[in-house]
Design brief:
Length: about 130
């Protein structure tokens, strides 16, 4: 028998719903399970999904599509100095995407800050010669 989850989504018969509030992730060198109130589950992988504030509510004016924050290849958004990477930019939701885009966005942000600093230095030199 199929059942609906709390959001009204129909679950496949093979999916077992486990009740209980998560209280921790178990494991020494890597995650091996999840501790719930009253029980512990073993797991090969753990994905934490939580509802959050929409990006355009955090940063007014941020260009967002139904798939996520709109960015260019450097991770830049439509707002100068604001960069984004990973799951907030849309599918695919994969660790390799997050790390790769995160590195590109971080390097782009550093380049942006360097350019601002260089412009400030040039402006200071021009003002000093006047």
């Amino acid at each position: 028998m199929k059942e609906e989850d709390v959001r009204g989504i129909t679950l496949d018969e093979k999916i077992q719903r486990i009740e209980g509030k998560p209280v921790g992730i178990t494991g020494d060198m890597w995650a091996t399970g999840v501790a719930l109130e009253g029980q512990e589950l073993t797991a090969d992988g753990i994905f934490i999904i939580r509802e959050s504030v929409l990006p355009d509510q955090l940063v007014p004016g941020l260009d967002v599509s139904n798939k996520g924050i709109v960015i260019d290849r450097s991770g830049a958004t439509n707002i100068p100095g604001v960069f984004a990477a990973g799951d907030c930019t849309g599918a695919p939701y994969q660790l390799s995407k997050v790390t790769g885009e995160g590195q590109v966005a971080a390097l782009s942000a550093v380049k942006y800050l360097d350019e601002l600093r260089n412009k400030a230095k040039e402006t200071a030199k021009e003002l000093a010669t006047v």
